[in-house]
Amino acid sequence: MSEKQPANVGGLGDSEEFKEALGKYTPEQQALILKTFEKGRGPTRELYEAAAGWATKDQLQHLHELYQGVGSPTFESSVYDETPTPSPGPTVNPEYFRPEVFQFVKKLGKGAFGTVALSKVKKATNSRLTVGAEVAIKHQYEIFRDPRLTKRVIREIRICRLLGGHDNLLGLLDLSISIGREVETRKRYKTFRGISMVMEYFAGGTLKDHFRNTRLHYSDDDIKSIMTQCLAGLRYMHSANFVHRDLKPENILVRRNTDGPYTWKVVIADFGLAKCFGRHIDDTTHLTTEQILSEDHDWEDFLTSDYTRTYEIKAHVHTKHVVTRYYRAPEVSLLQQEHEELTKIDIWSLGCIFGEIMQMKAENEPRSVLFTGRYDLTLEQDERAAQMGKYTRTEQVKIIESQQINQIFTLLGYPDDKYINSIKHKKLRGWIRQQTQKKARDLTKIYPSMSKEGLDLFTKMLQYDPTQRITAEQCLAHPFLHETAGSGIYNTKTTKPMVENFELAQRMTDAQMRALVCQEIMFYNPDNPELIAETQDEEAASPFLGLPKMFETQRSIPVEEEEEVAGVNVSAYTPEQPKKPEK
After folding, report:
1. Rounded distance between C-alpha atoms, residue 304 and residue 515, angstroms
2. I need a surface site. Which of 172, 332, 454, 535 has the fewest CB within 10 A?
3. pLDDT tens across 11-32, in order?
4. Cα–Cα distance between 72 and 57 in angstroms, integer?
5. DSSP string computed for 302-360
6. How far apart are CA 182 and CA 178, in angstroms?
7. Is residue 202 within 8 Å of residue 547, measured between CB atoms?
8. Is the separation of the CB atoms in 205 and 254 below 8 Å?
9. CB atoms within 10 A of CB 149
10. CA triplet 575, 382, 270: central angle to 5 degrees?
11. What are the backbone angles phi and psi of residue 135, rounded to the nearest 5°?
C-alpha cells in the first residue's frame, strides 16, 4: 500500500473525522471542496484561490488527507501563513446579546475574528459594571476552531484579568459566553463557540485617531503625560514577565481625562499577541491566588469526554511574525529575538509611536508614520524581488529601498560594524553590508520644537542593538520624563513577576484549552450556582497553576507556536542586469 493509499474501508470521505472537519465550513464552501476532491485530485490552485480568506493551504491539505482516510490531522503553518483562520461568521447577534444586562447602541467595528459593539449597562451583574455606563463589547467568534486562535484568546483574557488593574492597561468589566439570553447552564460550556469581552468604552478613540485629526495638537506637557502613561503601563507589564508584542497607535486608547490634572487618559489594549515569558516553572512561591487562578480539575473532568484531541506546542520558542511591520524592531526582522531582551521589542515600538507623538506639536514636521516599508525581507517577502531582471536599475533600487529595514536606515542611519557583526544569520548579515551606508537625519530639523532631552530619549528607545536599548524603567527616569513620572500623579509601580505555566506546556488538549476559557468566565461569574462545578475528587495540586491537569491521549496534533524559517533567502533582494531599459 502506498503512503497515500486510503486507510478507511468505508470509502472516500466517509470518515467521521472528515465529516466533522468539513462541517465547519458553509454549505457553499463544502460544495466547492467536495467538487474538487471528487475529481480524484488534491487541493488545486483554483481551490486555494477560491478559499482565500476562509481556509489556508495547510488546512485544505489536511482536509484532503481526512477525505482519503490518511493519518490524523495536522495544523502546521508556513512562515507567511501564521495567522489563525478568520471565523466564518458570528455566533451571536450583537444587537441581542444579553438584553437583560446590556442595551445595544451601535456597532463600532468589525474584523476577521469578531465584532465590537457599543452598549449601555442596564443591570450591574458584578461590582465592575455601573448602570448607565457605556461599554465596548468585543464579540469573538469560533474561538476553538483553530488552536492558535484559542491560545491567543486565552492569553488576552488572562492578561486582562491579571494586569488590568493597572491604570494604563485595559482590563475586563465582564466576560461571558456569546449568548442571546442571560441563563447559562453548565452543559452550554461544552458547546459554546464564542465569547464576549466587556470593556470600558473610550469615546476619544485611539492615538491613531488623534494623529489623523489635523486640528488637534499636543503641548509639551501632553507629550510627557502620554509617554509617561504608556511607559508606566509597559513597566508594570514587563515587571510581571509579560511582553505586548503588538504596540501601535491603534492599540493605545485615549480619552479626555476627568480624574486628574492631565488632559488625556491613556490605556494600552489588545493583548492578543502578548505573552508571559516567565520560565521558572518550579518557583511559584511568589504567586498569589489574586494573580493566578487556582487549578480547577473539575472543569477538565467535565469536558474530557467530549474533547480528546492533543496539540504539540513549541512552547520554548518565540513567534517570529510579531508586531505590525511599521513598528517592528530590527531584531524581529533579522530573526534574532533573544528571550532576555523580549521587552525591548515593546520599547522599539513605543519609540516609533513617540516619533509620531512629537509630530503632534504644531511646529514639527507634517504627520506621518516613521518607517513605512512595503515588505520585510524574510517575514513578508516582496514578490517583485524574485523577478528583479524584469525591472530597470532605478526600479530595482526602489524595490530594495522599500524594505522595512532600509526605511529605518533612512532615518536613523546605517548601523555600526559591531551591530552588523552581531547578526547571526550569515545571509542577512551579508545583505545588510550591501546596503547604502546612509547618514542619520538631523532630528532637530524634523522636530525643531522638541527639547534635546526629548530627542535623546527618542534616540535611546530606537537603538538597533536591543541590549543597548533603554528599558521602560530607564525611560521613566530619563531627564525628559523624570519630573512628570515622579509627580505622584501616575501609577509607575511595578508588580511581582508571574509565571503562566500553560505557556510552558509542550502539549495541551482541546479540553484543557476550553477549560482555561471556562475558568476565566467563572472569575467574572462567581455567584452563578449553575456554573459552579462540584468537586468529584481531591487530587494533588499540579505544578501547572491555572492549567487543568495533564492527561494522555492517543492522537497528537502539532501546532506551530512559532513558524520556522525554512531558509533565509535574501539573494533576491539584490540588483540584477535589467532586461527592461530605463525610460
Report:
1. 10
2. 535
3. 467 666 677 678 778 888 888 8
4. 17
5. HHHTT---EEEE-TTS--SS-S-GGG--HHHHTT---GGGTHHHHHHHHHHHHHHHHTT
6. 10
7. no
8. yes
9. 21
10. 140
11. -135, 155
